[in-house]
């Protein structure tokens, strides 16, 4: 809004050049880009100054940073791990190496405390005195230790606070503080002392009580062992600090110890102790035992590997023997199968031959039977006639020659048929003579024919000669029998 020229002139008269600057500043605030550029130029210095002032920046940004990191890790954990790898890797390795060194050191200390003569001596002392082994070990390795701290209100003599170190047994602190006050009063009343006359040290065996008397409080330390000079300085500084921080509470103390809350941290700094320093040495005992265990483990692994190798070799040998036996059995089986096949072929051949032979024998038997039947009919149908009163036979007679051949052929056929041939020659005569003469002539004719046939080559056992009167003629007939 520029207004009228009069109003503009009035503004120039009232604000002059500052009005133009205000307009420019207003335009800068209304323009987000200009405002952001302005804030960006000073935001780092502003954050640094506010953080240095009260640390509110860290508190304000912590929830946002935590949410951002949580979201980044959840959305892409690999990228976060890659970013942290250069930092986390060396840190993890260093932590593991430190843990291993501590473990070796602890292991070596345990071995020394368990196996050394000194540890057994401490255990004997613990058994003899009825104390724990930890207490005996602490006493033998300790130079000094502040076991108890007493803070006593000087004016009233009441105990304001009392601290005890670990593993230390304490009597009633109220009684002890009263005794310290009573001893101080006894010394003041009994002896003429110069200066302030305050009791600053008590000695009882290995225990020393250091006492610091301040205007409003008394601080006492119960020390076991050799008291170093710095303990007296620590006692004085602590007493001064208590008076600086709790001076009003000490002045107005009426028996209520609640204003002294938090004073334990100051008194706790007085519970110091120092052990005998031992030269740092390599844990040779742990190394030796570790090397022994590693050697035993390596020997066991070697023996195990050898045993496994022997088992593998034995298994291979057994498998090889089984394979050889299996191969041998396979070969034997193949041979048996080949022999069986050959036997089957031979058997089949024999069967075929037997069948052929059987067929041939059957055929031959049939042929023989036919031949025997034909020859038998032919022989039985044949006959040889004689002249009257004649019994002689011409061996070259065609009928005799044919008969001889037929009987020989029949004998051969009967032998092939495994039969016995019997040819009976029946001699006949006519009725012209007497019966006896005819009987003799019939028998003579049969015998002569039998002899002729024998001479022709027919075996004698085949032929039988008999007389017969069945036919009235001068002839011989034949009867064939097979057995």
TrEMBL record:
The chain crosses the membrane at residues 284-302. Keywords: Coiled coil, Membrane, Transmembrane, Transmembrane helix. Residues 385-463 form the OmpA-like domain. Residues 319-346 form a coiled coil. SUPFAM superfamilies: OmpA-like. This is OmpA family protein. It comes from Thiothrix litoralis.
């Amino acid at each position: 809004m520029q207004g009228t020229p009069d109003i503009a002139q009035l503004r120039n008269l009232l604000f002059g050049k500052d009005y133009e600057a205000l307009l420019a500043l207003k335009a800068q605030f209304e323009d987000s880009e200009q405002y952001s550029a302005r804030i960006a130029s000073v935001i780092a210095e502003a954050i640094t100054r506010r953080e240095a002032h009260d640390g509110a920046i860290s508190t304000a940004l912590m929830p946002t940073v935590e949410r951002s990191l949580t979201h980044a890790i959840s959305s892409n954990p690999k990228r976060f791990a890659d970013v942290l790898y250069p930092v986390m890797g060396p840190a993890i390795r260093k932590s593991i190496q430190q843990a291993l060194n501590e473990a070796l050191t602890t292991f070596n200390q345990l071995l020394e405390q368990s196996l050394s003569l000194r540890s057994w001596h401490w255990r004997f002392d613990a058994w003899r005195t009825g104390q724990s082994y930890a207490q005996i070990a602490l006493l033998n390795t300790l130079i000094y230790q502040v076991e108890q701290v007493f803070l006593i209100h000087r004016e009233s003599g009441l105990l304001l606070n009392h601290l005890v170190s670990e593993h230390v047994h304490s009597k009633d602190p109220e009684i002890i503080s009263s005794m310290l006050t009573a001893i101080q009063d006894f010394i003041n009343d009994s002896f003429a002392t110069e200066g302030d006359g305050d009791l600053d040290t008590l000695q009882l065996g290995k225990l020393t009580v250091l006492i610091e008397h301040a205007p409003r409080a008394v601080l006492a330390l119960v020390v076991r062992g050799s008291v170093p000079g710095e303990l007296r300085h620590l006692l004085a500084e602590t007493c001064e600090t208590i008076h600086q921080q709790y001076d009003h509470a000490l002045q107005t103390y009426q028996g209520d110890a609640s204003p002294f809350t938090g004073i334990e941290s100051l008194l706790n700094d007085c519970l110091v102790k120092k052990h005998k320093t031992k030269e740092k040495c390599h844990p040779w005992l742990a190394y030796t035992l570790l090397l022994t265990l590693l050697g035993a483990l390596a020997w066991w692994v070697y023996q195990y590997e050898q045993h496994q190798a022997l088992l593998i070799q034995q298994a291979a040998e057994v498998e090889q023997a089984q394979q050889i036996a299996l191969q041998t059995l396979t070969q034997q089986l193949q041979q048996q199968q080949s022999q069986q096949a050959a036997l089957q072929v031979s058997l089949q051949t024999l069967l075929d031959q037997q069948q052929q032979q059987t067929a041939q024998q059957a055929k031959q038997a049939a042929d023989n039977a036919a031949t025997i039947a034909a020859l038998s009919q032919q022989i039985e149908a044949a006959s040889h006639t004689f002249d009257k009163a004649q019994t002689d036979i011409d061996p070259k007679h065609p009928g005799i020659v044919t008969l001889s051949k037929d009987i020989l052929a029949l004998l051969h056929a009967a032998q092939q048929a495994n039969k016995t041939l019997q040819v009976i020659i029946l001699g006949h005569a006519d009725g012209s003579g007497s019966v006896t003469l005819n009987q003799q002539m019939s028998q003579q004719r049969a015998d002569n024919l039998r002899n002729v046939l024998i001479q022709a080559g027919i075996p004698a056992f085949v032929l039988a000669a008999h007389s017969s009167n069945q036919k009235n003629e001068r002839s011989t007939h034949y009867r064939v029998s097979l057995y």
